[in-house]
Amino acid sequence: VGVASVPMALGGGSSYSTEVGGLAAVPMSDGSKVTLNTASEIRVVVTETERRVDLTQGEAYFEVAKDPTRPFVVQAGDKRVVAVGTKFAVRRTEDNVQVVVTEGKVRVEGSGAGRSVPAAELTAGAFARASGKGTLIQQRPLEEVEEYLSWRSGFLVFRDTTLGDAVAEFNRYNTRKLVIDDPAIAAIRI
């Protein structure tokens, strides 16, 4: 998988996106780096007081340059992921936001259905799924976290995953979709 950035000018920042199956490396002016996964889009705004990335769709991995005077904020729908200096991924789907932390700490903030949802603190090895109902956090070994983020190097790694879930993940990277008609086959673990 090739790595390329695709900038587009927008008022108050720059926008970057990838096509289905694409991967893009986006260097930021503060020294932070963003890697965009397939079919993803972000808008980046860096000011004197804040570094902000709006994740419009898809998934991105962030390597945040340390700067305690300017928080690094990823906005994904109604969720905010806040970091000072760390490495983490954010994946946005229609119903929720998934955050995976590989180094340091981040805070997931948000609101849902007209009410405030308590912030969740995440450390390295944390997998979190945030929705309007709250945030579910699971702690995993860092090796497993790195396997989950294998897309950054052009690979997908599956461990004890149903064939149906693996096909769904493959379909994120292809315009021509794979289909499993038999639920018994979709349930096979690989």
Proportion of residues in β-strands: over 45%
Sketch the major β-sheet.
14 strands, mixed
Order of helices and strands: EEEEEEEEEEEEEEHHH
Beta strand count: 14
- What would you call the structural class? mainly beta
| DSSP helical segment count | 3
Nearest-integer average pLDDT: 89
3D shape: globular
Question: Percent range for helical residues?
Answer: 10-25%
Q: First CA to last CA: what distance?
A: 24 Å
Radius of gyration: 17 Å
Query: What are the low-pLDDT stretches, counting only 5+ consecutive residues below 50?
Result: 1-11
Characterise the protein shown here.
This protein is mainly β and 190 residues long. Helices cover 11% and strands 46% of the residues. The chain is built from three helices and 14 strands. Strands 1, 2, 3, 4, 5, 6, 7, 8, 9, 10, 11, 12, 13 and 14 form a 14-stranded mixed beta sheet that branches. Strand 9 and strand 10 form a beta hairpin. The N terminus is likely disordered.
